[in-house]
Amino acid sequence: MTETHTQPAPAWSAPDLENPHEKDDKATRVRDMFGAIARAYDLNNRVHSLWRDESWRRFAVKQANVQPTDDVLDMACGTGDLSQAFAKHSRARTITGADFTQEMLDIAEHKRQKLNPKLADRITYQNEDAMNLSFEDESFDVLSIAFGIRNVQRPEQALSEFYRVLRPGGRLIILEFDKPTIPPVRWFNDFYCATIMPRTATWIARDKSGAYRYLPKSVETFMTSSELATAAQNAGFENPVSKKLTLGICACTRAVKPTR
Questions:
Q1: pTM score > 0.90 for this model?
Q2: Residue (of 232, 53, 27, 212) closest to 130 by Cα position
Q3: Cβ-count burial of 145 within 10 angstroms (0-12 exposed, 13-18 middle, 19+ buried)?
Q4: CATH code at 160?
């Protein structure tokens, strides 16, 4: 008797993508998707940002104004690029990278072990859900999330959790794709993200999960940087400011938890 194997259904198919943020099982789909593309994730980030993603992360670190006594939580850390940027480009006391896709954390840990011990020893990784963090109140001085807030099932709930675990005066740093306002840049970006990137990224990752159809659609249907700043303010943060990067392709939003 011949044993047959059926391929698992893709995390995202065309009918799911009209507005992926409205899917009740978005979190499960996102976890499955990132698990499927984890091994090719770094390469695709470099290639399809035209090697700009590392400079965006360095900018985010600078915006955090990290002090030597600060503890940093890097949410949706993925394969650990921003966590490592905090270790390399700031004086943070500790850096905790958190993600809810274990396959991504496994790669992050492998990369951590290759670092200089003085850097590696400041970083730890753990599995966490952004909407229900296991950390105690007021545990961190900086909370960052790079290209991850739009993948959360309920971003407003995550922002409330971020507020809870930050100490008074703590800084929230959100790095996220945005919608360029300059028409030629917007036209090129729309064409690139909708037509070129899904094909080339899918080929590089050998992906069957639909990840690189979901990712551009998740940007298109998500909050703008100004709307995200308002959402942070609604969660209790003060002085939200968004700075556009690379002609508005992405933005870094910074907000502060009020001091008592």
A1: yes
A2: 27
A3: buried
A4: 3.40.50.150
